[in-house]
Write a structure and sequence with these properties.
Elements (H helix, E strand, L loop, with lengths): L5 E6 L7 H14 L4 E6 L1 H4 L10 H15 L8 E3 L5 H10 L4 H5 L2 H10 L7 H4 L1 H11 L4 E4 L4 H18 L10 E4 L27 H9 L20 H9 L4 H10 L4 H28 L2 H29 L3
Parallel strand pairs: 1-2, 2-3, 4-5
């Protein structure tokens, strides 16, 4: 029997998930869980890199996020779900890896530069923020992750994890590879924009949550930006510059040709187009919301899933660190 390759991915606990989280990551995880031996973790330590002052909201955000994971279809029997901070070996491996990479290499990271600029942190970046790709490498390599589903902006971090794996193997175990070099796997669907056309983010107020009720989804969809040249029904539209059409391509795939034709001819007005898009989204998330209601009624199920996932992850992490200690000569 062929061994399944190991997949590792995680999310920062931001509470209830939005459609961008679902399309950009979660849906892909669910599709891959039969193909790979998957591990998915709550990256709670990573939240400290940009927001170390609001740790008390992390437990509730974790519960809400994992509830969405399960409601969307992640199977904890196939894919252990665990909390990063509950596996203390991550901190030790992060420390060891931090000795194998230079600060100048970390400072050249384009993703980190962009994030610092967006958050206004260029002149006051913390030591932990600068080194968070090293912690990310520890997260991946602790479970000997071979495949990591990521967005394109995270590919530099995967390359850094590959460099660290090579460096560790060369220094401590040249005859026996301890860590594989992970590969990044891009999502097949591009990042879903927010309702205003910018990056989808709850802080920008431009999201549709997986858990939003139908009336709220319809209300939010009415605010979505469209082709600025299509002012009234009858005006010919340009679907490829319309945000709502982007949503249709994901949530109304069977109707895309008809919608494109109606928009370009002017027969389909924006109000009707948005209504159809909202109906498609509502239909798509309905089974997710039904499972979520059950989990909200029995929250102990989420607690048990995380407890079991932590135990399974802890066992793998302990084995990895035993191997690390041995090749380093730490006994």
């Amino acid at each position: 029997m062929t061994r399944k390759r190991r997949l590792l991915s995680g999310m920062r606990p931001t509470g209830k998930l939005h459609l961008g989280n679902y399309v950009g990551a979660l849906e892909n995880w669910i599709k891959l869980q039969d193909e790979f031996e998957s591990y998915h973790f709550v990256a709670d330590w990573h939240t400290l890199t940009t927001d170390a002052e609001h740790t008390r909201i992390i437990p509730e955000n974790t519960r809400e996020m994992v509830t969405d994971w399960l409601a969307a279809g992640l199977d904890p029997q196939k894919s252990p779900l665990f909390i990063q901070s509950q596996i203390k070996q991550h901190a030790e491996l992060h420390l060891i890896f931090s000795m194998l990479i230079t600060t100048s290499r970390l400072e050249r990271n384009p993703t980190l530069k962009e994030q610092a600029r967006d958050l206004g942190l260029e002149t006051r970046m913390s030591y932990g923020h600068l080194g968070y790709p090293v912690l990310q490498a520890a997260d991946i390599l602790m479970y000997k992750g071979e495949v990591v589903p990521v967005g394109e902006d995270q590919l530099p971090h995967i390359e850094m994890a590959r460099e660290i794996a090579r460096r560790f193997n060369h220094v401590y175990s040249p005859r026996q590879m301890v860590f594989p070099e992970p590969e990044g796997r891009l999502s097949q669907f591009p990042r879903l924009p927010g309702l205003d056309g910018n990056r989808m983010s709850k802080s920008l107020g431009n999201t549709i949550l997986l858990s939003d009720p139908p009336d709220e989804i319809r209300r939010k969809m009415r605010t979505a930006v469209t082709d600025p040249q299509k002012i009234r029904r009858g005006d010919p539209g340009r679907p490829d510059v319309c945000l709502v059409f982007t949503y249709h391509k994901r949530f109304t795939p069977d109707g895309v040709a008809e919608i494109r034709s109606g928009c370009e001819s002017g027969a389909l007005g924006c109000v009707e187009c948005k209504q159809r898009c909202a109906d498609s989204v509502i239909s798509h998330v309905a089974p997710v919301q039904e499972r979520r209601r059950h989990l909200e009624e029995y929250p102990e199920q989420v607690t048990e899933v995380l407890h079991e996932g932590n135990q399974r992850a802890r066992a793998v992490a302990a084995k990895t660190m035993d191997e690390v200690h041995e090749v380093m000569g730490f006994g």
